[in-house]
Design goal:
Elements (H helix, E strand, L loop, with lengths): L15 E8 L2 E8 L12 H10 L5
The structure holds zinc ion (ZN).
InterPro entries: Toxin_RalR
Protein name: Restriction alleviation protein, Lar family
Organism: Blautia celeris
Length: 60
Protein backbone atom coordinates (compact mmCIF):
# COMPACT_ATOMS: atom_id res chain seq x y z
CA UNK A 1 0.00 0.00 0.00
CA UNK A 2 1.61 3.22 -1.13
CA UNK A 3 0.41 6.49 0.30
CA UNK A 4 2.41 9.66 -0.04
CA UNK A 5 3.21 10.82 3.46
CA UNK A 6 4.72 14.02 4.71
CA UNK A 7 8.45 13.92 5.25
CA UNK A 8 9.79 13.12 8.69
CA UNK A 9 9.49 16.04 11.15
CA UNK A 10 12.79 15.10 12.75
CA UNK A 11 15.17 14.35 9.92
CA UNK A 12 13.27 15.44 6.81
CA UNK A 13 13.56 12.01 5.25
CA UNK A 14 10.83 11.02 2.82
CA UNK A 15 11.29 7.30 3.12
CA UNK A 16 8.45 6.63 5.46
CA UNK A 17 6.90 3.24 5.86
CA UNK A 18 3.82 1.69 7.36
CA UNK A 19 4.09 -1.01 9.97
CA UNK A 20 1.33 -3.44 10.68
CA UNK A 21 1.68 -5.07 14.07
CA UNK A 22 -0.31 -8.19 14.87
CA UNK A 23 -1.64 -8.33 18.42
CA UNK A 24 -3.87 -10.71 20.32
CA UNK A 25 -6.83 -8.44 19.73
CA UNK A 26 -6.22 -7.86 16.04
CA UNK A 27 -3.79 -5.52 14.37
CA UNK A 28 -2.36 -2.14 15.15
CA UNK A 29 -0.61 0.23 12.83
CA UNK A 30 2.09 2.83 13.01
CA UNK A 31 4.12 4.97 10.67
CA UNK A 32 7.88 4.87 10.92
CA UNK A 33 10.68 6.92 9.42
CA UNK A 34 13.16 4.55 7.80
CA UNK A 35 16.02 6.96 8.37
CA UNK A 36 15.87 8.07 12.02
CA UNK A 37 13.29 5.65 13.38
CA UNK A 38 10.77 8.30 14.45
CA UNK A 39 7.36 6.74 14.70
CA UNK A 40 3.80 7.32 15.70
CA UNK A 41 2.19 5.45 18.55
CA UNK A 42 0.22 2.35 17.69
CA UNK A 43 -3.18 3.04 16.20
CA UNK A 44 -6.14 0.81 15.62
CA UNK A 45 -6.37 1.68 11.96
CA UNK A 46 -3.87 2.63 9.32
CA UNK A 47 -5.85 5.79 8.68
CA UNK A 48 -5.39 6.89 12.30
CA UNK A 49 -1.69 6.17 12.13
CA UNK A 50 -1.43 8.26 8.97
CA UNK A 51 -3.43 11.05 10.59
CA UNK A 52 -1.07 11.03 13.57
CA UNK A 53 1.91 11.26 11.25
CA UNK A 54 0.38 14.04 9.17
CA UNK A 55 -0.65 16.09 12.19
CA UNK A 56 2.56 15.40 14.11
CA UNK A 57 0.90 14.20 17.24
CA UNK A 58 1.77 11.15 19.30
CA UNK A 59 5.29 11.08 17.90
CA UNK A 60 8.19 9.35 19.58
ZN1 LIG B 1 13.27 10.70 10.31
Amino acid sequence: MEIKLKSCPFCGCQEIFHAEIPTKKGRTYKIICSHCGAMTGRKKTEEKAIAAWEKRYDMK
